[in-house]
């Protein structure tokens, strides 16, 4: 086990639009959405109907497989609408807020395993715990090998947790104390080496602390796990975002559900990149201005979800990225090396002469899918002890034995997002990895 992890591989994408460390407004939404689609493995069963009154923390739906796992309302108000999609798939429950901040009181939580588990299940925070391998919702009946928390992010334009959660150190401490009750292997807590001493979290106790340095994806918890305690066949570990740890700590300390977070509004198309205080489920149009010709992404440009102007902030999201829609085709663009306004990870353009420049990147992928080219570009940006090119091909072939051999237990799609970015063949590598994971879940569960 290493307390200091230095990564040599990776890539920081130089995109414009980092959020200034200021909070420009607090959004008090008229309506919030509770979305079961935010949680992989959650099979929703409705517990409310239109017109029902709810409090913050009131159960809205339960999991069909594990009925003790609940999703709860982040606000008090009235159930306004049940939103369904094709084949009556439940997409969201819309709650009209009453502005009264009424909340279920879960009481203070005793420092025992059973009490912590019960509070997280009743408050609707259990789905904040992600189980690896496969990145699914954690099984309450399992005691994991260890729990991992990344206290920083290196994703493009990611929210700065040292800023967004600086006033919630007590909640983070209470959260890791509670999580430590759920495992015998301790809570592994990783901090960025560059800001370790300045970070408000460097004095967090009751954790196994690690410092990590390197380019993106150094902040990915999956990359950190691979260097701390790799996941082998038969292992189970849990991960929790720092935002989730703070929410868990708040409900343990106060007995009240608090899902508020500072959301970074970022990207080249953002007029004033800064932070906005909001709740998960807040309509995007209340967080940021929506403009025609701009793509609204919940999360970062590598792994985020396209929300659109009528979308809602996701449960795990503390960032919205705005980039311009761009589908223009440039004649012989690949043959023009003098392109100082285009970034190339391989140094094909002379933009490498300005290494500190930030770029106005859009949605243009500069080409379409083509023959799969074997190169070392994937391994150059994947700081894990796996064979990414062979893992990707094994997932394409649906070969379970080879997927196991080449590292399917250690990765989620986000861990190979950079491979997708640098891929000269323009393959949707994250989708390929997710398809491989789905095969493993179906065949190995």
What's this entry about, in short?
This protein is of the alpha/beta class and 445 residues long. Helices cover 21% and strands 20% of the residues.
Describe this protein's structure:
The longest helix has 16 residues. 21% of the residues lie in helices and 20% in strands. The strands form four sheets. A seven-stranded mixed sheet has the order 1-14-13-12-15-10-11. It has a six-stranded mixed sheet with strand order 2-17-16-20-18-19, with no helix packed on it. A four-stranded antiparallel sheet has the order 3-9-8-5, with no helix packed on it. The mean pLDDT is 93. The relative contact order is 0.15. Helix 3 packs across helix 5, helix 8 runs antiparallel to helix 9 and helix 8 crosses helix 11. It is α/β, with parallel strands linked by helices and 445 residues long.
Compile the SSE list and pairings.
Layout (H helix, E strand, L loop, with lengths): L3 E3 L16 E4 L4 E4 L9 E3 L6 E2 L4 E5 L6 E3 L4 E8 L5 E8 L15 H11 L6 E3 L3 E2 L9 E4 L10 H4 L4 H12 L6 E6 L15 E6 L7 H8 L8 E3 L2 H13 L6 E6 L7 E5 L5 H4 L6 E5 L6 E2 L12 E6 L52 H4 L7 H10 L2 H7 L10 H6 L6 H16 L1
Parallel strand pairs: 1-14, 2-17, 12-13, 12-15, 13-14, 16-20
Antiparallel strand pairs: 3-9, 4-6, 5-8, 6-7, 8-9, 10-11, 10-15, 16-17, 18-19, 18-20
Helix pairs in contact: 3-5, 8-9, 8-11
The termini sit apart by 29 Å
Helicity range of the residues?
10-25%
The geometry reads as: globular
Question: What is the radius of gyration computed over CA atoms, rounded to a whole number of angstroms?
Answer: 22 Å
In the sheet with the most strands, the strands line up as 1-14-13-12-15-10-11
**Quantity of strands, as a count:** 20
Determine the structural class based on helices, strands and strand pairing: alpha/beta
Main beta sheet strand tally, sense and closure? 7 strands, mixed
